[in-house]
Amino acid sequence: MRRRQFVAAAAASAALAPLAARVVSAAPAPTALTPELIEAAKKEGKVTYYTAMDLSVAEPMAKAFETRYPGIKVAVERTGAERLFNRIGQEVGSNIRRVDVANSSDAAHFIVWKRQGWLEPFLTPDMAENLPADQRDADGAFVNQRTHLSTIAYNTKLVKPEDAPKGFVDLLDPKYSGKLVKGHPGYSGTIMTATQQLAKALGWEYFDKLSKQKVLQVQSATEPPKRIEAGERAIAVDGSDYLFWMAKERGAPVEIVHAVEGTPQISNPMAIFKSSPNPNAARLLVGWIMSPEGQEFIVKVSGQYPANKRVKAKEGRPALASIKTLPEDPLEVEKTADEIKSRYQRYFKV
Amino acid sequence: MTRGIDLSRPVLVAVAALLAVMIVLPVGWLLVVSLTSKEGGFTLANFATLFTDPTFVDPLVTTLIISCSVSAICCLVAAPLGWLVARTDMPLARTIRTLVMASLVTPPFVGAIAWEMLAAPNSGLLNQLWRLLSGMPPDEALFDIYSLGGLIFVISCYTFPYVFILVANALDRMPGELEDASSMLGAKTWQTARLITVPLALPTLLAGALVAFLQALNLFGSPAILAIPAGFHTLTTRIWSLFQFPPKPELAAAASVPLLVLTVLLLRAQAMALGRRGYAVLGGKYGAPRPIRLGWLRVPAVILALFVLAMPLFLPYAALFNSAFSRVASRIVGPDTITLHNVKFTFLELSSTMPALKNTFLLATASATLGALLALMIAYIVARKAMRGYRVLGFLATAPLAIPGIVLGVGLFLAYTRPPLALYGTLWILLIAFVTIELPAAYQQLGSAFHAVHPELEEAGRMLGATRLRTLADITAPLLRSAVIATWCFIFVATIRELSAAVILFTSETKVLSVLIFDLKESGDVGAIAVLSLTMVAITTIVIAAANRLHARPQARPA
């Protein structure tokens, strides 16, 4: 299911692209990370990486890259995917050349950027060989860096396992009123993607009802895990699953729930910008992150699901195929993002 | 060099041009854009939306409720506290006065984050303590900071110092003889207070109420932290949300206009209230007021004062320290759980820390220097009527007071993302914003300082052949040194705290500390926020202390 969705999105984005872009609608010839490229990257000396990934993973990953290629500093710009999209739009639109590599949890953004002709297609031989077709754009304009889920989770000190919700509809139970925390689709790409999937699966009435449960509204999908660990609320309606797992694995009283209705699945595409001021360092960073070494680093630190087929998922985590997931539909997100935000605001008042 | 030539004319013209760039252009664009449709034609539709769409009307009403409540609370707290400090023999009065001023160094958004750590309904330290003491079950909370009341409380914490300073200063200046007369005629202490002190202080208190109202009206930081989790918007957070994707600058511009109009009206009212203050000091010099003896109430009074100070100062900083050295902010750190994890993360891993620190202190130093210089020149021109049209300069220097930070941010964004001056994306646009925001206060401070320097000293310099600039540099400036340093410090601190304009105008390259903290808040990284906030406050304190040492050096007192 996952495979078909990403391909559909990639194909559709190619179809939407202006004619000029369609002429070159084949993936670019793979570029190897040659010593010359590395040398050129070192001459640039820095690379700016815009991402929506939690800093506890993004910053160590940047440090690992800096260790691997000494002399190249990575500036990590982290904020929620929706704010990231806005910021990049404003900066590139005002001719401010700053972003080298962008990585966001809202795959729809890449459809827009590709259509605007802002992305520089890039693949290494390793990426061409080891990224399944569903993990990259047909034209090589972007690739999926990793996949995570937006799960329900609860604090085991505040909720007994037998009282825990089994799925999204359970959360409407009056006994959970005032105990919930959730992220906001206007700031978080994970929540934007998940909201589209849930609204499709359960209808908007679901959110209307949920908004009456006195939900603590936070912004990024990376915040509910921190609120649950701190015990501020008992149950997270949504949030990046890898952070729930990371908290649990370091001994925090956190338990993850894969909803009976299905769990929203979120791909995290990554792309190089045409206006990149450090194009060689940008290529090196993308090539490294997508290589078995980079992918293994992400898996080791966070346990997110890798895109490179030579890298295995983290031990002790459920296999992605064993989880009932909801279909991801970036095209639909792209078309309805505005409506999703305004409906959400109508129900939740913010 | 051009020593012999009088440079004053070009300088004066340059100042006027600069003020136009800073104020006229942004406000002009703001008004134009608010009356423009998406397609570019003239329209009133943006204003129609503003007053009919509940997603605008609700924030407007909420904002007015907040401002009125904050104003009332600030007066109720600041007036008695100001009186205790200025007019009674309460112990530690000087210390308490200093601490209230020191609490102003705390950016309001940092205060709001600290109060989340204290009073979030479940994980808040105070609520945990209360449950521990009362044996209440997990879901019961004494305080819920994510509520309208919680937001009003936090805004009041960081607004009452303004009212306090006004009240305490006014009471300092108030003639003691009237009170003495009252008690000689047999009035009791409390009667004197009711019949003499309160009526005399009333205009100042009214002005303080308006200042508090304005602060609350235009504040962005605290609402941005607390209102969204509580499920409502204020006008400033709503304007900010209009800058999120898809950006709607025309609606943001329209939504800024009510803030602008309300602020102008209130400033007029404040000027009227303060204008009446004159009658309190009718002729002659009075002796210093005699402190009122509190007797056995001395100890309860100081306890009360310290309790009030716990709200903006002791409790929040305790919470910040706790969470800086704790893995989870909701746990009290102990010898076995203390960790340097957050410190290491902030300074060794977080790649935005150093650029943001650098940008912040560069901008603060530049804004303080440029702002103090500009204010000095304008104050001089106005005080000495050195140029035709000096009144216009004085007006322009005061005008930004009427422009809320977020509105100025929107205006500057609209004015400088297009030619001829495409400054967006550079530190210049932030510099313009910060200098503009702080100019009125700086100008007022230096304007009153100029009144203390008699023009004949300057005239002597001019008669001996010095140019106007040289006179200013050699004669006036040294006499004004302490006022200039105080103004410099004031702008420095204010710039570091500034969030509302910065959050509209920053780009990734020009991120400042306040915006970095705001971004970290979005992802809930409170440990790093605590470390950064404490660093920010520590550096600010050091800079102020250093400036004050400079200031304290022996010097000729102004005539």
Would you write up a description of this structure?
- The complex is a heterodimer of chains A (350) and B (559).
- Chain A is of the alpha/beta class and 350 residues long.
- Chain A has helices spanning 2-16, 19-23, 35-44, 55-68, 81-93, 108-115, 125-130, 189-202, 205-210, 223-230, 241-249, 279-290, 292-302, 330-348; strands spanning 46-51, 73-78, 101-103, 119-120, 143-149, 152-155, 180-182, 216-217, 235-236, 254-257, 263-273, 305-306, 325-326.
- In chain A, the strands form two sheets. In chain A, strands 1, 2, 3, 4, 5, 11, 12 and 13 form an eight-stranded mixed beta sheet that branches. A five-stranded mixed beta sheet of chain A has the order 8-7-9-6-10, covered by helices on one side.
- In chain A, helix 4 links the parallel strand 1 (46-51) and strand 2 (73-78).
- Chain A is globular, with a radius of gyration of 20 Å.
- Chain B is mostly helical and 559 residues long.
- The chains are: A alpha/beta (350), B mainly alpha (559).
- Chains A and B meet through helix 4, strand 2, helix 5, strand 8 and helix 10 of A and helix 11 and helix 24 of B.
Instruction: Provide the CATH topology of the largest domain in chain A.
Output: D-Maltodextrin-Binding Protein, domain 2
Task: Report, as a whole number of angstroms, the end-to-end distance of chain A.
Answer: 33 Å
Strand content of chain A: 15-25%
Distance between the termini of chain B: 32 Å
Unreliable spans of chain A = 7-24
**Looking at the chains present, what oligomeric state does this protein adopt?**
heterodimer
Number of separate domains of chain A: 2
The proportion of residues forming helix of chain A, as a percent range, comes to: 40-55%
- Provide the low-confidence segments of chain B as ranges: 277-284, 554-559
Return the structural class of chain A. alpha/beta
From N to C, what is the helix and strand string of chain B?
HHHHHHHHHHHHHHHHHHHHHHHHH
CATH class of the largest domain in chain A: Alpha Beta
Shape of chain B: globular
pLDDT averaged over residues of chain A: 92
